[in-house]
Amino acid sequence: MIFDKKFKEAISHLPPTEKDKLILRLLKKDLNLANLLYFDLVDARTTDDRRLDVENRIKNRIERFSQHYSSPGYLMMDMREISGEITEHVKIAKDKFGEVSLKSTNVK
């Protein structure tokens, strides 16, 4: 969506408390944006720390469904969840290296 100058100017002239309320309402509707802002503004972890956490979760899930394999359908469902987790990490941390690194994660 493209915002015209009048709209941007009207928003910039809103009182700070009104802006805060609107921002919080918008963040409730867009969890990806909320997580991105949380990571940028509050989270003490670095991108590398976050990548290692995601990598460890992936390895644990791979080990778990390697031991308790039940059907190709469940395997594909788990793989989709892992793929989504990687995508979410890349969007939040803006970690291009992590995208390649996590997709090539293997269990030893």
Radius of gyration: 19 Å
Report the total helices. Answer: 6
Low-confidence stretches: none
Strand content: under 5%
Mean pLDDT: 87
Distance between the termini: 47 Å
SSE string, helices as H and strands as E = HHHHHH
Shape: elongated
- Structural class by SSE content: mainly alpha
Main pleated sheet: none
Helix percentage range: over 70%
Number of strands: 0
Describe this structure in words.
The chain has six helices and no strands. With 108 residues, it is mainly α. The longest helix is centred in the C-terminal third of the chain and has 22 residues, at 72-93.
Short description:
This protein has 108 residues and is mainly α. The protein has helices at residues 5-12, 16-29, 31-41, 47-67, 72-93, 96-103.
Question: Keywords for this structure?
Answer:
108 residues; mainly alpha; 6 helices; 78% helix; elongated
Write the topology of this structure.
Elements: H1 5-12, H2 16-29, H3 31-41, H4 47-67, H5 72-93, H6 96-103
